[in-house]
Structure formats: C-alpha cells, structure tokens
Amino acid sequence: MTMAEVKIVDGLEARHMDEALRVVHDAFAEKFRIGFRHADDLIRLFRDSVDTTSCLSALVDGQFAGLLTIRTNGQEFYHLNMGALFTRFSPLRAIRMLLNLLLLNDGTKADEFVVDSLAVDPAYRGRGVGTALLRKAEERAAAMDKRTMSLGVVGENAGAIRLYERLGYRRTQTWDGYLVRLATGSAEVHRMEKQVGGIGQDAVGEREVA
Ligand SMILES: CC(C)(COP(=O)(O)OP(=O)(O)OC[C@H]1O[C@@H](n2cnc3c(N)ncnc32)[C@H](O)[C@@H]1OP(=O)(O)O)[C@@H](O)C(=O)NCCC(=O)NCCS
Q: Which atom, in ligand 1's list, is nearest to the CA of 120?
C-alpha cells in the first residue's frame, strides 16, 4: 500500500463510530484500564456524545483505518454525557470511569492544537496512515491559527516517539510519579510539541511575555 491510497477526511462517519472507538480503546487499553476495561464500555458511553467534527478519519479503500482526535480550548472529541454515565452504568463503574477521564485530561491553551489520541487499526500500521493523519492535523491547526501542536506519549512507546520526532515534534516536558502511573500505567509521559503556521519559537516566546 502506498501513501496515495490513504484518504484523510474531516470528522467521523456514524457507520464507523463503533469501529473507531474500538480501535482507540485497544490502542490505549493500558490507559483505559481503570475505568474502561472493555471497548464496549467506551462505545456505550461515548457513541452518541462525541463531537465528530473534532477528529480526522483515515480511510483505505473506503475502509476505516485510523482516527486522530483533536482537543482545542473550544472543542474536543470526547464529550462526557454525565446523565449517560450514571444511568447506563452502576455508580461504582461510573466513578471509575470519571476518575479515568479526569486523570487523562489536562488544560488546553488558546493557541494550542492537541492531538488527543492517534490510533491506527493494527491491520494498517506501518504504511503511512499515522503520518498522513498527523500531516492533515497540522494543516487543520494552521488553518485555525493555532501555533502549537502538542501531544502526550508514554515513555515506552518508542515507535510512536520516533514517528513524532521524524515529523519534527520535540519533547518539552516529562511527567512522572504516582498519578502518572495510576493514569497511564507507565512510569513517565512526555509532552511533545511542534510549532505550526509559520510561527517560530521566538515569536511564541515574545507573545507569551506580552
Ligand atoms: C503509533 C501509530 C499511530 C503509528 O501509526 P502508523 O500508521 O503505523 O504510522 P506510519 O506508518 O505513518 O509510521 C510508521 C511509524 O510508526 C511507528 N510505529 C509505532 N508502532 C508501530 C507499529 N505497530 N507498526 C508499525 N509502525 C509503528 C514507527 O516509528 C514507524 O516508523 P519507522 O518506520 O521509523 O519504524 C500506530 O502504530 C498505533 O496506532 N499505535 C497504537 C497507539 C499509539 O501508540 N498511538 C500513539 C500514542 S501517543
């Protein structure tokens, strides 16, 4: 398969919803283990509340191949439906899910475009799908006048880190400690960033001082 066969589209079609949430769940099973042990839990909670405009889908020959979810300070893919949380699950399960979601979330700056999650179906990995999703996300960020692409990646995920570095992302911060292990199952999480929209590091620094 070549890059040309990968099509990246804005949003997520309803017919691909369950499959997409399953691919995301399975890619991040360790992170979801506190609240969402099974992909069906994630599907049951989010299938009718996600913001399908805050993501990009990858299609190969019309088949769903991967999803990149987006978070900005105005929008995010994972919209929590509190009513559904407490009516569809037992109180204990609901609290576990809430804890999981709270631990995995952090603030978003006005000029930031967060790649909240990037997951490619295992059957399509290593063929340029992840790269194509990230490149399209950068175009979308620039069009929205965002300056900083950011993402979090666990220290063990050497393959993903290599992919991000190849595309120009650099580590800017590392978190470790008890909460990081509780939330992600990993000893450390790196924040990686890339400047987009033709704005250099200096300009961002000046703007922050102003
Ligand atoms: C990381 C991931 C999104 C990459 O998607 P992809 O479509 O395979 O990426 P591409 O084909 O564009 O690029 C391949 C690169 O991805 C990395 N990679 C990570 N896991 C891989 C896998 N299982 N198979 C192939 N490549 C993988 C490699 O660095 C590879 O680069 P290389 O040629 O230097 O080895 C995908 O492997 C995935 O969904 N993994 C599980 C979820 C995950 O780790 N997401 C990122 C967390 S922040």
A: 39
